UniProtKB/TrEMBL annotation:
<dbReference type="InterPro" id="IPR029016">
    <property type="entry name" value="GAF-like_dom_sf"/>
</dbReference>
<dbReference type="Pfam" id="PF01590">
    <property type="entry name" value="GAF"/>
</dbReference>
<protein>
    <submittedName>
        <fullName>Uncharacterized protein</fullName>
    </submittedName>
</protein>
<dbReference type="InterPro" id="IPR003018">
    <property type="entry name" value="GAF"/>
</dbReference>
Length: 179
């Protein structure tokens, strides 16, 4: 599957996400898997966020399965984990934190993080059986007053792509790859 260069245009990214949702409806192949990973990176760039990641919830931990960071942004180690209950991700899934936050510093009661979090977008990754695999999140170090509901819609569509990728891999008895 070919990724077009015009994806930084918000409407073009939405179209490509829709095309991938159709393409991944019943199967997966390495080209589509790479396209999903590329779309996640492009989403981070379009939203002007510093980090995008896919987390898995496993045994009370939030495990980072895919991470893409802007140059100079803090790195979150793939395979790294921390307590789920102390994460923004869990708060989003259980409704204690909105999926779209323009300035996390203004939200009372959030757990401390190893680096400042300004703008934050997060949505659950729901598998076809209704279970929550984890979350798709992106954040910036500074407030992101430019974030809008359409950005959350794109994030949710990307989470559907990730859910399909995870579901296909699990059906084949494998972990998803993030090449």
């Amino acid at each position: 599957m070919m990724i077009r260069n015009d994806l930084l245009d918000p409407s073009a990214l939405s179209v490509h996400i829709s095309e991938l949702l159709v393409a991944t409806a019943e199967s997966s192949d390495p080209g589509i898997d790479r396209a999903v990973t590329t779309v996640l990176r492009l989403l981070r760039e379009q939203l002007r966020m510093d980090v995008v990641f896919v987390s898995e919830f496993a045994d009370g931990q939030r495990v980072f399965r895919f991470v893409d960071s802007a140059p100079g942004a803090p790195t979150v180690p793939v395979g790294g984990a921390d307590p789920l209950e102390e994460s923004y991700c869990q708060r989003v899934v259980d409704g204690r934190l909105a999926e779209l936050v323009q300035d996390a510093a203004k939200v009372p009661g959030l757990p401390p993080t190893p680096f400042p979090v300004g703008g934050h977008l997060s949505t659950p990754i729901r598998l076809p059986d209704g279970s929550v695999y984890g979350t798709l999140c992106c954040f910036s170090l500074a407030p992101s007053r430019h974030l809008r509901d359409r950005d959350l819609v794109n994030l949710r569509h990307c989470a559907q792509l990730v859910a399909r990728k995870v579901n296909v891999a699990q059906a084949r008895g494998r972990e998803p790859t993030w090449d």
